[in-house]
Amino acid sequence: MSKIALVTGATSGIGKATAQILAKNNYKIILCGRREDRLLDLKNELSAFTDVYTLSFDVRDKKAVFESINSLPEEFSKIDVLINNAGNAHGLDSIQNGNLDDWDAMIDINVKGLLYVSKAIIPRMIEQKSGHIINIGSIAGKEVYPNGNVYCASKHAVDALNQAMRIDLNPFGIRVGGIHPGAVETEFSEVRFKGDSERAANVYKGFEPLRAEDIADIIHFVVSRPYHVNIADLIVLPTAQASATVMNKS
Ligand code: NDP
Ligand code: 8X3
């Protein structure tokens, strides 16, 4: 029987590529994100391979998160795999120059949004006594870099929550693992730099960054391990990147 995977942030980047690879590997998919047009385009594309359902909500909106997930039809209600991927950086400023709205966005989306979605789905997994949660952290959740302050803090929180979920959900047979990418060329920097495409493109110049598909491929590997194998924590960097700040650029 096909497993069901719910992917947050499926309208772009890592989430979209993950939905694509899982759909082609016999998973039914629940696509989540705010941009409905993109959700519908991806649903059309992936319906050639599998059953697809879309849920459009903002992970910051507690009520919308619970109402959306509780509205899933019977055939999509047993969620086997949750990919907690929705998130972004907003701004790259020193702590003294930080923008409060950027701080709110990062804490509300990357931390509280991940918690709301998890809280809406975990009771189902507990009842099933099975499930697999993948939390997308970052190298920024393992290290801190100049001007990364609040984004790094939000991803350190994801790292802590990943460990905490693994402990608390251990009695229920639920697998929990974190994947922590370095630089992946997606819309991430466009969002961080508020649509400044030139500045965003510069982030990936002079070295070969990861592609969203590289991370999606690893997510598929992680979720397709036999049940007794839980890949708990993975850091994945471009070969040119040695740490959050050390990059071999030409
Ligand atoms: P993208 O900007 O390409 O994708 C971000 C996704 O998150 C989009 O689908 C977006 O959907 C969704 N999202 C953002 N805000 C919200 C919100 N408020 N409610 C619901 N969905 C939201 O970036 P990436 O694919 O690169 O990022 C995915 C994850 O990977 C993030 O958690 C990011 O922190 C992490 N990461 C990225 C790295 C990189 O270098 N790119 C490296 C390490 C980690 P929509 O706008 O339609 O709602
Ligand atoms: C995204 C990678 O290095 O910009 O999490 O923080 S980085």
TrEMBL record:
<dbReference type="Pfam" id="PF00106">
    <property type="entry name" value="adh_short"/>
</dbReference>
<dbReference type="InterPro" id="IPR020904">
    <property type="entry name" value="Sc_DH/Rdtase_CS"/>
</dbReference>
<comment type="similarity">
    <text>Belongs to the short-chain dehydrogenases/reductases (SDR) family.</text>
</comment>
<dbReference type="InterPro" id="IPR002347">
    <property type="entry name" value="SDR_fam"/>
</dbReference>
<dbReference type="GO" id="GO:0016616">
    <property type="term" value="F:oxidoreductase activity, acting on the CH-OH group of donors, NAD or NADP as acceptor"/>
</dbReference>
<keyword id="KW-0560">Oxidoreductase</keyword>
<protein>
    <submittedName>
        <fullName>NADP-dependent 3-hydroxy acid dehydrogenase YdfG</fullName>
    </submittedName>
</protein>
<dbReference type="InterPro" id="IPR036291">
    <property type="entry name" value="NAD(P)-bd_dom_sf"/>
</dbReference>
